[in-house]
Request: fold
Amino acid sequence: GIIGRRGAKEYKKYASARKIQKNWRTRQEQQVYKVLLRSVHVAQERWRMHYAKQQMKKLKQEAKEVGALMAKNQKVQEQATEMRKKNEEVEAQTLMLTSEKKSMLIKITQLEDQMQAAQQQLEAEKLKAEEVKKKAEENAAAKLIEEALEKLNEQMREKEAVITDLVAQRDKEKDMQEQLKQELQRTEHRYQSLLKSSAMQAMPPSTAGGMAG
Reply:
């Protein structure tokens, strides 16, 4: 009986000790789990923060690149507008020079027609003078014939002076036409250069670089 009670008492103490140890281990495991769980949460927060910073940096870089592209596109558009304006000015100047050239050609043609008519009239006056001279040789009224002949000679000199003026005026108009022709050629060359430059500006940078290579 005494040994049995003592054994029961020892077993009870042993069972209580086992229970206390089990509870202590459980609390320790719970504390370790809580620490591990807190560490996992901290690691996750740090990773999320790092990922967010990377995304923010990437977005800032993309925004910077987009801003640069927009500025470059605006500059290209401004250059294209300027090119169109220059092209319009050159086209207007070309039309004006072409119109002036046509007017010059018409004026030169008119002067040549006037000169030809004056030449024909001069030839007629010469024939008339020859006839008067011939009649003067046959006619006794030499004085009247001489006066008429002198008058005809004076008219011929006047006609010759008119022809000389017309020739000088025609030559001057031809010189002006040649100068206008050269100016028109220079304007056309500048216009073609502007068109080529405008086409190059309108191309994307990669295409323009390929053509330059």
